C-alpha cells in the first residue's frame, strides 16, 4: 500500500484521498493515516509545486554547479555539504560520482546573482578546490512533467 501511495503522490502532491482509497480498495481515513505516518517517519519529506517561471512572466535562472572538494577527516563530504545546503539560495546538494564531488543546484533571478553567489559565498569555502557552473537554458521535462507544449498532430482526421 505504501509504495502505491508514494508513487501516486510523487507524481501529484495534491493527493486526492478518495481516488487513492478507491485504487487501494480501502477508505480515505486509512489512506490519510498512512500518509501521516510516512510524514512522521520522514519517508515523505515535503511537498513541492512545479512552476513554469517563463509562463508566469518571471525569468528564473537555474544553475548546476559542480564542486570539487577536499573531504574532511572523519566527516567525508557531509560537513562541506551541510555548509553549502544551509545557504538559502541553494535548492539542492548531491554527492555525485565522476570528476566532481558535489552537485549544487541554485535558483536565482539573474546570471550576475548566481555568479556572485559562486564567487563570494561558495568559492571562499576552505575545502572547495574548484567549481564549474552550468546554466539551464530550457527545461523540456522537470520532475517527470513535460514543460514544453505538446505538438498537435498535423494529420487530417479522415472519417468514412
UniProtKB/TrEMBL annotation:
Superkingdom of the organism of origin: Bacteria
Matches recorded under SUPFAM superfamilies: Dimeric alpha+beta barrel, Winged helix' DNA-binding domain
Entry-linked InterPro entries: Dimeric_a/b-barrel, HTH-Siroheme_Decarb, Tscrpt_reg_AsnC-like, Tscrpt_reg_AsnC/Lrp_C, WH-like_DNA-bd_sf, WH_DNA-bd_sf
The Transcription regulator AsnC/Lrp ligand binding domain, residue ranges: 65-138
SMART domains given in the database record: HTH_ASNC (SM00344)
Entries under Pfam families matching the protein: AsnC_trans_reg
Protein name (Swiss-Prot/TrEMBL): Lrp/AsnC family transcriptional regulator
Organism: Bariatricus massiliensis
Amino acid at each position: 500500500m505504501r509504495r502505491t501511495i508514494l508513487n501516486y503522490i510523487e507524481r501529484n502532491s495534491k493527493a486526492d484521498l478518495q481516488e487513492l482509497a478507491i485504487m487501494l480498495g480501502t477508505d480515505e481515513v486509512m489512506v490519510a493515516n498512512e500518509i501521516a505516518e510516512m510524514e512522521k517517519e520522514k519517508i515523505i519529506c515535503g511537498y513541492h509545486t512545479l512552476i513554469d517561471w517563463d509562463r508566469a512572466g518571471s525569468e528564473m535562472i537555474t544553475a548546476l554547479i559542480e564542486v570539487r572538494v577536499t573531504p574532511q577527516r572523519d566527516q567525508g563530504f557531509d560537513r562541506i555539504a551541510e555548509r553549502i545546503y544551509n545557504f538559502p539560495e541553494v535548492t539542492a546538494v548531491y554527492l555525485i560520482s565522476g570528476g566532481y564531488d558535489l552537485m549544487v543546484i541554485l535558483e536565482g533571478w539573474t546570471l550576475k546573482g548566481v555568479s556572485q553567489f559562486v564567487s563570494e559565498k561558495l568559492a571562499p569555502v576552505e575545502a572547495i578546490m574548484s567549481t564549474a557552473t552550468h546554466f539551464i537554458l530550457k527545461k523540456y521535462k522537470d520532475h517527470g512533467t513535460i514543460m514544453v507544449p505538446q505538438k498537435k498532430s498535423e494529420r487530417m482526421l479522415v472519417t468514412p
